[in-house]
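Duplicate of #3305? Posting structure anyway:
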């Protein structure tokens, strides 16, 4: 009996302890946890709101050099990466004549030779008769003119044959259309043809074969796109800070000089093309087609009071911050209305409502 009584008391004690522990545990769980916030001090600083346009750096004018005659590349005198002067020869084209045209030109030469030979014979007879005073001076002069005409016709026929066969005459070698010359001073960016390639001149049916691309690499522009939500805040003449991915740790100044009046759609968003003149030092080599980012300052605030934008509560048309009033034993705050100005996306300007001596509630500190 005594043993049963002790066991019963022990069991009741254990049950009581479990009940008490459960009650305490549940009471503690029901108590709200203390939330601790980061405390932020307002600071006086400069703010800039910028937008970034992505694009490429390229020469303002890139000229494609095309042949004035069809044929085959016989010689290439230049290659990509070399400087070239205006009128300097880049390549030579060898003409492949059309068989029918060649036969006609050869036939013209033979006929001109026959006519000249006959004119020389006739003039010889007329000259003798004139010396014997058997014909008039007028007849003699007509025969002499005819001889000169036949000589000119033979020379013209021979020149025509040379042009058809070779694309050049001996008398006009300096201005030959078979010699492909640069039309500007600049750098050769590309030579897309090789010796032996066929090339054609530009006509109404096609643009012709490009022999080389030449550009002045001292006159560069940035060409990129800006979103329609920000295009209304930029204008020609604005300064641009240019960064090129291939040239790390370097930035260049540029000046916005063109904003497209018409948008183009890109993945459902309207984009406007912009161009900016690049001011790059001569010591830096910039290659055509480098990817670049153009940072444009849309708005600027000098020495303004600012706090992280995440500290601000926006409600309807009003803005508030929570100013620290006490930190012992718990943090306590006062909801204070403020007037805000521009934001750079991270910090926001505070125009009134707090001072540099205030401390405001920031983000919650995770335990």
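Output from current build:
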């Amino acid at each position: 009996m005594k043993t049963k009584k002790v066991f019963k008391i022990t069991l009741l004690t254990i049950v009581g302890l479990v009940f008490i522990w459960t009650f305490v545990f549940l009471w503690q769980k029901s108590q709200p946890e203390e939330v601790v916030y980061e405390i932020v001090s307002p600071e006086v600083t400069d703010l800039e709101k910028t937008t970034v346009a992505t694009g490429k750096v390229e020469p303002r004018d890139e000229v494609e050099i095309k042949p004035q005659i069809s044929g085959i590349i016989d010689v290439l005198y230049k290659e990509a990466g070399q400087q070239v002067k205006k009128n300097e020869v880049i390549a030579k084209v060898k003409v492949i004549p059309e068989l029918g045209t060649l036969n006609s030109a050869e036939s013209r030469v033979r006929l001109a030779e026959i006519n000249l030979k006959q004119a020389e014979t006739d003039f010889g007879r007329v000259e003798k008769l004139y010396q014997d005073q058997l014909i008039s001076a007028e007849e003699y002069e007509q025969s002499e003119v005819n001889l000169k005409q036949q000589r000119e016709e033979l020379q013209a026929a021979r020149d025509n044959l040379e042009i058809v066969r070779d694309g050049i005459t001996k008398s006009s070698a300096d201005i030959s259309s078979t010699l492909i010359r640069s039309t500007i001073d600049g750098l050769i960016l590309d030579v897309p043809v090789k010796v032996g390639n066929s090339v054609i001149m530009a006509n109404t049916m096609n643009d012709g074969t490009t022999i080389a691309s030449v550009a002045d690499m001292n006159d560069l522009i940035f060409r990129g796109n800006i979103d329609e939500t920000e295009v209304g805040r930029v204008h020609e003449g604005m300064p641009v800070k240019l960064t090129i991915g291939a040239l790390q740790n370097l930035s260049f100044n540029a000046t916005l000089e063109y904003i497209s009046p018409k948008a183009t759609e890109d993945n459902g968003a309207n984009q406007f093309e912009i161009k900016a003149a690049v001011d790059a030092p001569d010591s830096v080599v910039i290659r055509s087609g480098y990817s670049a980012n153009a940072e444009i300052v849309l708005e600027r605030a000098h020495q303004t009071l600012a706090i992280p934008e995440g500290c601000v509560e926006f409600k309807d048309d009003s803005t508030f911050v929570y100013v620290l009033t006490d930190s012992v034993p718990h943090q306590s705050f006062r909801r204070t209305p403020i007037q805000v100005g521009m934001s750079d996306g991270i910090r926001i300007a505070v125009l009134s409502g707090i001072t540099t001596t205030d401390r405001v509630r920031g983000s919650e500190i995770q335990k």
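Confirmed duplicate; merging threads. The chain has a mean pLDDT of 85. The chain has four domains: 37-47+302-364, 52-59+217-301, 62-95+174-215, 99-166.
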